[in-house]
Design a protein that fits this description.
The chain is α/β, with parallel strands linked by helices. 19% of the residues lie in helices and 10% in strands. It has one domain: paralog of FGE (formylglycine-generating enzyme). The strands form 3 sheets. A 4-stranded mixed sheet has the order 6-5-3-7. Strands 1-4 form a two-stranded parallel sheet. It has a two-stranded antiparallel sheet with strand order 2-8. It is globular, with a radius of gyration of 17 Å. It starts with 17 loop residues before the first strand and ends with a strand.
Amino acid sequence: MGSRERIGDADEHPQHKVTLSAYCIDKTEVTVKAYAACVSAKGCSAAPLTVNWNKYSAADVKLYSRFCNGDNRPAHPINCIDWYQAKAYCMWAGKRLPTEAEWEYAARGDDGRAYPWINDVPSGRVNACGSECAAMAKRELNLDWKSMYHASDGWETTAPVGNFPGGASPFGALDMAGNVWEWTADWYGAYSGVAATDPPGPKIGTARVIRGGGWDDHAAASLCTAHRDNLGPSVRNVHAGFRCARAD
């Protein structure tokens, strides 16, 4: 788990050995339609259609909330929900959020690959910020976003889940790079570097680990299987969603 020396960001080190008990993980990110079923069954609170982040001004909230997926995009990943809502959905479905270690193994396997599909460039394998995303940002947001690749991936924001089979992980999990970042169960913190079995992450923290990169990422490093980021558990963002796991 983690990156080799001189590769990746500081929080991806030290690389260390992890042993995991058998588990299953969702093949795709949880969709708008699936989350709505949980709401209908009263297992989940309604999916907000606004973002929430202390880094956003009122103008930013209005600007970015347009990218929250609603009922008109049933096959797209649910986004703009916080960690607590993601956890509640997984519990309702008889599952749980994956630990950070489980997420990385499902994306990476045990051969040290840079991306879920191995080590080739992302273009054509993911929904990240291609030429279409940069054009949308200029048109809709009046922002100059760099594109990760020159080609268009066909989707200005999120794509329907499972739309990029060429980006499958060694276990067949889809969209583990791109589309939306994914909440994990763990608090964010430094790796100890000690070999561990079923590590649960730090016992306390202020932010939860998110993994995988999203539709608006312009740096290929964000899609790497060992890359880590974090958000406060109450944050709702247009590029954050989730998938669930359970013990096998």
